[in-house]
Write a structure and sequence with these properties.
The complex is a heterotrimer. By secondary structure, chain B is of the alpha+beta class. Chain B is 53% helix and 16% strand. In chain B, the strands form three sheets. Chain B has a four-stranded mixed sheet. In chain B, strands 2-3-7-6 form a four-stranded antiparallel sheet, with helices on one face. In chain B, strands 9-10 form a two-stranded antiparallel sheet. Chain C is of the alpha/beta class. Chain C is 30% helix and 27% strand. Chain C is globular. Chain C has a nine-stranded mixed sheet with strand order 9-8-7-10-6-1-4-5-11, with helices on both faces. In chain C, α2 crosses α5. Chain C has one domain: Rossmann fold (3-Layer(aba) Sandwich), CATH 3.40.50. The N and C termini of chain C lie far apart (47 Å). The chains are: A alpha/beta, B alpha+beta, C alpha/beta.
């Protein structure tokens, strides 16, 4: 094994992505990170490599090439079949010490956020958690700030030769953004929020050309201090309104076809992975049960997206949802008060608009 | 003179504010609607040591001072005056007289019951024909061998149908008027004890109010609280302390209503701007705030004086009178700010207003408070 | 046996957050609270204390006012508190913080039947890194995202939450666990606890107290010892006035969907 010194930054090269598999299947985040890693590797002029651990993972490795990996390091071992902090951190740190990548991206899943800090602490390097944006080239970063910040980028001094990975992430509940660098140690590590990076189109030719490499590593039972006794896949339990990220609420506007209106809301909620809520009118009329009620006498919610269908926006309804991160309102009446607090408003019949919106969101997500 | 709470009192306020927000507020409207006794929350308040808070540690309490009790009642009453009432009665009208006037045996038996034993306490003074004039009580206790036989009925008893331990006032010698009144500790399990009519009230729906009936009720001789014939003094002294609790309750109601009004008027837009931007609203809110601050000073002063062992009869009456009238004024004005919404049950304003009214009546009406204050002004 | 619970005082970001005119966070206007996940960690420890009678020690790194949070933990039922505080520790990133906290935990001492418990992550930084990094520095096995903890002698069985289910992990003491909110409902301070909170020991570990630890070195702690630096910080553009989209047909819906995707809202 060659010597490893995380401060000897000249000795490090290539961008790596940890590719997580669960039950022998790659995670969607892997493709997102490989796609983003491709951009970063191109900016740095280096190779992009996947790092895949499992008990027999060769078969799924080439697919990563189709999204941009030049090479996939595959570590197969019976003890790596299921994720354990002990086994994965040992193998990953050993391989990194040998092969010295300059950047190492990990999906910010519950597994990635267990693994990342353990490895960073062992390797004595920096790790930025849950990133939503990554840049190397300064002009790209300036352009990003121009679009996404209130900073006056033109009056700032920039070092155009700066090759640090600029890792941007939200802090303070999203009220503040911070760009983190790791200038003195390598590899520069980041966990990346799932669903944020755009996935490249799959390219079969690139997949075929992707090189599979089996790096040397050692692993034995003695390396383990924990034992995973079972892994259970559980259907996502029905989230209640308060914990939901997406809420589609209906109001008196569904009165001409209550069942149909609720069905449309359910379809839209299902597409978003959210739940259905209702204004007081829908609960009082017996159209929805009381646990669906949003507002002064119901629940106070703050989802990422609140879609109000046929809700006029009386003050007692607004009291329950006005702190939602993004409010979308659909209402026939263009003077409905709900539009005053909506981020996006569509004036129209919810029975016509909702199915179109559901379809448009489905298409937009598929194209992502 | 230092107007800062101690660090312990600050923590108690913080804890009670969290508890009230998370446990009391979510069920306050439902409690009012159904009239159900908030049993789970009272159980939790036993867990936290709020029930019987001033009882010394050796009898199972937290050994806190009257100010700590007042802060707890105030915070609870910001969201639910019924819960505040249950605690105020238990602490001020049952634990306190037993602690102050009880024999060592009585304290050892009853105070642990009222704290770690999770039994609720109550206080029985008022009768159909003896309200503000407590000397006209008809309930009688006659000594027969080693026990008293009690007959009569008491009305408007807070915690009436949930309590296990009652401090009861009865005539042991009718010929002596107030000097013939004695105090007793009565358990609901004593033969001849029964709960009569459950009162339907304008407000405080979660506070269980009932008639208590004694029919040849057997009360052991050793359950007399204080000396024979000293009951009236015990009652008056207990009510002095109880008034601090009601002052705290009324203060909490007023503060709760003010908080609601502040939030609402900032969000409610009429004539193109939030109604909090109108000077009429601002001036009204200023008066509400001022009264809350004044009431707080009066209430805390009375509580601290009680804790110091000073005489505080006048101060407790002042606090109770001021806070209860301010609670009524504040809830009325706050409801007005909500307009039609305030009159509906979508908002807590009408409940707060109904709850506030009783604070001007029980544990001595506002008129009685004025009698107490003027009697302590050296006018005679 | 004892349990060491690592907690953090954080600004309450759950309510409205005030931003200064220059785009920085108005911290003075924000209340501080004990980090919510850390409350679950403390409750987990107190539950084990209820069952076994073990000692619970709370530890935090922060400025001197963080002592008030430690008193609250003592009022909830913890037995002792340690405040790790020093100028030299300022500006630490998660790596340096875990280095310092690990040194403090070592100074307290980790016995074979001890457990270290942390919250999953703090709401100011949301990194979830200090727990695992401390575990590495202490050479303890870690189980993160604990949704259930069952202790049977020295063996601890943890239900570890995954996005699509959970895994059951067995680990022996000494070990480090991080907790999520599904684990339990934190208790309130009790009145009795409040009155004894100021009588319980609260000690401060400053640089002098920890400097002999091999983990404490100017090159591994504080701003200078932090591998990561803040390159820029900024506020996202303020949420502007809402947009009334034109039309209500297919194109309008497609336009809205593409905006939502572009802004990472869906």
């Amino acid at each position: 094994m060659s010597t490893f010194n995380s401060a000897d930054i000249g000795a490090f090269k290539d961008v790596w992505v940890f590719c997580e598999q669960r039950e022998g299947k790659l995670m969607p985040t892997d493709f997102e990170l490989i796609s983003k890693g491709r951009d970063l590797a191109d900016e740095l002029g280096v190779n992009l490599c996947g790092l895949l651990l499992g008990d027999d993972a060769d078969g799924i490795a080439k697919e990563l090439g189709g999204y941009g990996a030049d090479k996939v390091y595959v570590c197969n071992h019976p003890l790596l079949k299921v994720y354990t902090t002990d086994g994965y951190a040992k193998v990953i740190c050993d391989v990194i010490r040998d092969l010295k990548p300059e950047a190492f991206l990990i999906g910010a899943t519950n597994i990635g956020r267990d693994l990342g800090p353990r490895c960073a602490a062992r390797l004595h390097t920096g790790l930025c958690a849950d990133c939503t944006h990554l840049d190397v080239d300064v002009p790209n970063y300036i352009q990003f700030l121009r679009e996404s910040s209130t900073l006056d980028v033109d009056s700032m001094k920039w070092d155009m030769g700066d090759r640090n990975l600029k890792m941007t992430r939200p802090a303070f509940g999203g009220h503040l953004m911070a760009t983190i660098i790791c200038p003195r140690f390598r590899p520069c590590m980041a966990t990346v929020r799932p669903g944020v990076m755009k996935k490249n189109a799959f390219d079969q030719a690139k997949a075929d050309a992707c090189e599979i490499v089996h790096p040397a590593f050692e692993l034995s039972e003695g390396d383990f201090q924990t034992e995973v006794t079972e892994v259970v896949k559980a259907a996502k339990k029905l989230v209640d309104l308060i914990g939901a990220d997406y809420i589609v609420s209906v109001g008196r506007g569904i009165s001409k076809d209550v069942e149909g209106g609720i069905k449309l809301a359910e379809e839209l909620a299902a597409e978003l992975g959210g739940v259905v809520g209702g204004s007081r009118a829908t609960i009082d009329s017996g159209w929805l049960s009381a646990d669906h009620q949003v507002g002064q006498t119901g629940k106070t919610v703050h989802p990422k997206v609140y879609i109000a269908l046929g809700i006029s926006g009386a003050i007692q309804h607004k009291a329950g949802m006005q702190d939602s991160e993004c409010i979308i309102a659909v209402n026939k009446n263009d003077t409905a008060p709900i539009f005053e607090i909506a981020d996006y408003g569509i004036c129209g019949d919810l029975f016509k608009v909702t199915p179109l919106l559901t379809e448009a969101i489905r298409a937009a997500k598929a194209a992502k | 003179m230092d107007f800062h709470l101690s660090r312990e009192h600050e923590l108690i306020r913080k804890m009670m504010a969290d508890f009230t927000e998370n446990e009391v507020k979510p069920i306050a409207a439902e409690t009012d609607k159904t009239g159900a006794y908030p049993r789970e929350n009272i159980e939790k308040l036993f867990d936290l040591g709020v029930m019987g808070i001033c009882v010394p540690k050796e009898y199972g309490g937290a050994g806190a001072d009257p100010l700590a009790s007042a802060i707890c009642i105030e915070e609870l009453s910001k969201q639910c005056a019924s819960t505040g009432d249950i605690v105020a009665t238990h602490n001020g009208l049952c634990c306190d007289p037993i602690l102050t006037h009880g024999t060592e045996e009585q304290k050892k038996k009853y105070l642990p019951m009222l704290t770690t034993g999770r039994k609720v306490g109550a206080f029985c003074l008022t009768e159909p024909n003896a309200g503000s004039d407590a000397s006209k009580g008809q309930t009688e206790a006659k000594l027969v061998g080693d026990h008293y036989v009690m007959n009569g009925s008491k009305i408007f008893i807070t915690n009436g149908y949930v309590a296990d331990v009652f401090v009861v006032f009865a005539m042991t010698d009718k010929s002596k008027g107030t000097r013939g009144i004695s105090a007793f500790i009565v358990e609901s399990s004593f033969p001849g004890f029964s709960v009569g009519k459950h009162e339907e009230k304008m407000g405080l729906h979660g506070s269980p109010t009932a008639e208590i009936v004694f029919t040849d009720c057997i009360v052991p001789k050793e359950n007399m609280l204080g000396k024979e014939g000293k009951g009236f003094g015990i009652a008056m002294q207990t009510l002095d302390g109880g008034r601090i609790g009601i002052a705290a309750q009324a203060l909490g109601i007023a503060e709760g209503a003010l908080n609601e009004a502040k939030e609402y008027t900032k969000g409610r837009v009429q004539f193109g701007r939030p109604i909090a931007a109108f000077q009429n609203t601002q001036f009204t809110l200023a008066d509400m705030e001022l009264g809350c601050q004044a009431g707080k000073l009066l209430t805390y002063r009375a509580a601290v004086m009680k804790g110091n062992g000073e005489r505080y009869t006048k101060e407790a009456a002042e606090a109770k009178l001021f806070c209860s009238e301010h609670a009524m004024k504040t809830t009325t004005k706050a409801l007005q700010m909500f307009g039609g919404y305030g009159y509906t049950k979508d908002y807590p304003m009408e409940r707060m207003m109904r709850d506030a009214k009783i604070t001007e009546i029980y544990e001595g009406t506002s008129e009685v408070q004025r009698i107490v204050i003027s009697a302590n002004m050296g006018l005679r | 046996m004892k349990i060491i619970v690592s907690i953090k005082q954080v600004p309450d970001t759950s309510g409205k957050v005030a931003v200064n005119p220059d785009g920085t966070l108005n911290r003075a206007s924000m209340q501080t609270i004990t980090n919510p996940d850390d409350m679950n960690a403390l409750e987990a420890a107190l539950k084990i204390k209820d069952e076994t009678g073990c000692k619970v020690i709370v530890i935090t790194m922060g400025p001197p006012p963080a002592a008030s949070m430690l008193r609250e933990a003592l009022a909830m039922g913890a037995d002792e508190a340690v405040l790790v505080s020093g100028r030299e520790f300022g500006g630490s990133d998660t790596y340096a913080t875990s280095q310092i906290l690990a040194a403090a935990v070592q100074k307290i001492g980790v016995d074979p039947d001890d457990i270290v418990i942390c919250g999953r992550q703090a709401i100011d930084g949301d990194t979830a890194q200090v727990g695992p990094q401390m575990a590495e520095k202490l050479r303890l096995p870690q189980v993160t995202y604990a949704a259930q903890i069952h202790k049977d002698g020295n063996e601890i069985t943890v239900q570890r939450m995954l996005e699509d289910g959970y895994m059951t992990v067995k680990v022996k003491t000494p070990c480090l666990l991080t907790c999520i909110k599904e684990l339990n409902k934190p208790r309130y301070m009790s009145i009795g606890g409040i009155y004894s909170a100021y009588e319980k020991p609260l000690v401060t570990f400053d640089y002098e107290a920890l400097k002999d630890s091999p983990l404490i070195d100017p090159s591994t702690i504080g701003l200078k010892g932090s591998p990561t630096n803040i390159f820029k910080s900024f506020t996202p553009p303020q949420k502007g006035e809402g947009i009334m989209l034109e039309g209500n047909g297919k194109e309008t819906c497609e336009k809205l969907a593409s905006i939502l995707v572009e802004k990472h809202i869906i």
